[in-house]
Taurine catabolism dioxygenase TauD (Novosphingobium resinovorum), 286 residues
Amino acid sequence: MATSASTFDTANAGLVIRPVQPTIGAEIEGVDLSKPLTDELRAAIRAAVLKWKVVFFRDQSIDDAQQAAFAANFGPLYTHPTTQHDAANKEVHAIAAKHDREYEKKLGYKVKPGEAYHSDTSWRLVPTWGAVLRDVNLPEVGGDTIWVDAALAYETLPEELKQRLEGKHVTHNFVPALELSGHEYPIVAHKIVRTHRETGQKILWVNFSQQPQILGVELSESRELLEEVLRQYKRPDVQARFSWRPGTVAFWDNRASVHFAVRNYGDFPRELHRILIADEPLWTDL
Ligand SMILES: O=C(O)CCC(=O)C(=O)O
Ligand SMILES: [Fe+2]
């Protein structure tokens, strides 16, 4: 099937950009992430992340230090409080199947996959803007990740719901922080409908792994509205579902998307390494 040539930004610093959905997700060819980026490449990759919300690089061969160096092209790195520090690369956060089970044990309840559409560090007043994730050990089968276009999720809401959500705040409660890192954090509220400060798009932004509650309405209304948001996130047409294979690096705009790790890999081990990129206070849009 021919796709309109205009959807491929081949002019960008020699990169070939292949979208996986019309508005979210694109594979990028033509760059070796183990090497320092030129200014031109850095700008082209940043533009692609803003446009496609999540981009994927295949056939890469990088270690933790190279992953950190790549991420540092796009802002200061942020060390998550639950990161188990490796002295050499303190920003590298291992996400592993074994860790999931330990994490659940610590929480004392099972993390329900159906409720786990989330953005990273939304419990911060200024959430991290981006993340770079690479595979370290993949299961023999499954282990996909889904990214949701949170702008399209907003755009395709019925008008009546848009109006009900407008101006409302939702909580982001970093519940496990105390158990996992020894630090307490305040419960933060962000607008449900946020304006992305770089693209100007309106974004539907709820973190379903952090006990969301809409402020200023009855609990029943909060639950009903959040159910509608979750319904939007689950629509296949707003999602890019991505299959990992060895040598993959994903880089996403955390302000424009939410994501979901699909637990369809049985007892196979799975390990990914993630690096978060901090943002400026400007975008908080509180
Ligand atoms: O394990 C995955 O596929 C994604 C995990 C995740 O939520 C993250 O890296 O922020
Ligand atoms: Fe995440």
Summary: Residues 1-7 have pLDDT under 50 and may be disordered.
